[in-house]
Amino acid sequence: MTHIYDWYSVPDVLAVKCPGCGSAAVFEFADIRHIQRRKHVAAFKRSRAFEYHWFQNSWGNRWHGAVYYHGLRGTTHREAEHSLPKGYLPKGWAEGRGFRSHNPDFGTLCCPSCNIRRKHRLTWPEEAFFQVDYRGKTLWAFDRDSLNALRSFIASKDRKRMGTAWASFLFHIPGHFLSRKARAEISKKLDAIAKPA
Ligand SMILES: [Zn+2]
Question: Could you tell me the pTM of the whole model?
Answer without folding.
Answer: 0.82
